[in-house]
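Q: Entry one of two.
A:
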Amino acid sequence: METQGVIKEIQYEEFEEKIIEIRRTSKVTKGGKNLSFRVVAIVGNKNGKVGLGIGKAREVPEAIRKAISAAKRNIIEVPVINGTIPHEIIGRQDASKVLLRPAAPGTGIIAGGTVRAVVELAGIQNILTKSLGSTNPLNLALATMNGLKNLLDPRKVAKLRDISVEEVFKGVRREDNA
């Protein structure tokens, strides 16, 4: 039992954390205003794993702690091939859309602040992005995560179609003249 707790701690240490947004919210009640904070955090190992979390609390440090622990629970695997994504995709969340496009080596990360944070911590070095619609930081982060979540790994696609990985990218050449 003790060993499992240590392994989980060590596993979490490899993740880098970034706070995307800290927002003060207030609820008006009969007795006055109740102030609280909402924090959006991203964690990633810069090697194909990234997670997003939201934390709400009366104090900022507590909200940050909650957001980071939620992000560690919501980690997804992102297929990264030669420092970029395998194919173009559009991630959607409410009124926000994020276009994610693979880029040639040396391009770098062409993205706004919120999308950049998610993509960097996922371990992608070359990507072109464009945010369309609402620029709400939470929705942009969720749209980016949805896009990355829906990426197809070429190795899995090749296995499903029973073809080689090269044929997935270049197309299958048919030999029959029917």
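Q: Entry two of two.
A:
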Amino acid sequence: MANLNLTLKVWRQKNANDRGHIETYEAKDIPEEASFLEMLDIVNERVINEGGNPIHFDHDCREGICGMCSLTINGVPHSKEQGITTCQLHMRKFKSGETIWIEPFRAKAFPVVKDLVTDRGAFDRIMSAGGFIDVRTGSAPDANSMPIEKKIADEAFDAAACIGCGACVAACKNASAMLFVSAKAAHLNKLPQGQPEKTKRTLAMVKQMDEEGFGNCTNQYECEAVCPKEISVDNIAKLNRDYLLASVKDGVS
């Protein structure tokens, strides 16, 4: 396979208070079989060898599971390729001589830590507010003790596929977190185990989402288009219904 010679336009920012700027790097002799993050590793190795400051970016599993590798590539979260994370993007999708723009996810609730690294702790706080089920610990219950309709199980499983990367927020013009919150609420609210705390969970997670500074959803579906796990916006409609019912119940009680 032929190697690629690329030009990178990379966002550099010292911290959340720094204005930041774009710097240009030459990515030479990049193997086509390399992943996008491996390409950045190669560039960073050369930058370090030349006495420069390496490009800071986030990563962990590099298998499309953890959601840490959140980059905006040529203006699109995780790139224009659908159904993949940044770490699953390979350089064979680019052409030699191409210029690639690399920026962090942009959202008020995701402050820049450094360069391409953002603080997505807001998602963790939303999960802490209600994204769990309180159960008695001890011996595991029998797997068949609580039958669940296949349709419901499949819908819950699909919602649970969300890895919390934040692409939905970065793609939304309002920086809305509704797709993330609706997926995390849905996979619990749909199951029998999640029913007892459904009202409390829904109200708490939406309240925390609002407090974190995420914008409103205007149903333009950019979130679904860039989601690496292709989470459906149907979950947003379900969350809106659950929130309305939960508000009524809370008001009555």
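A: Comment on entry two: The first strand starts at residue 4 and ends at 12. The helical segments are 36-49, 121-130, 150-160, 167-171, 178-189, 198-211, 222-226, 234-252.
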